[in-house]
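Sample pair:
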Amino acid sequence: MSSGLIDMEIFNRFLESVNGDISFLDEMLETYFNDSPRQIDEMKTALKAANNDDLTRAAHSLKANSAVFGAGELANICRELEVTARNGIVNAADVVARIERIEEVYQKVMDALKNIRAGM
């Protein structure tokens, strides 16, 4: 089952891995909601500074954190950006567009996760 942006099988697997501890889930979601915008800002800063290492690191972190909650589409976009940055940016406009897409999808993921949590 999927809420569209969130693979509920993965989300529920995470919840099972923490023994259904809702307060821990809330802490993890809060951390994700606080860290993700900073990682997106780090991507923008790294791109402006032409710092591929920092861009790779920020994209990797958001990818991994998103995957934990079942946000596969967001994780995939971040993975693509991570690979692009690791291999050396050829088209900065493409990277800007990917970061904008990451921001857009992240907002939807955040809303979806909040809705899932509210329904628990």
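The chain has a mean pLDDT of 95.
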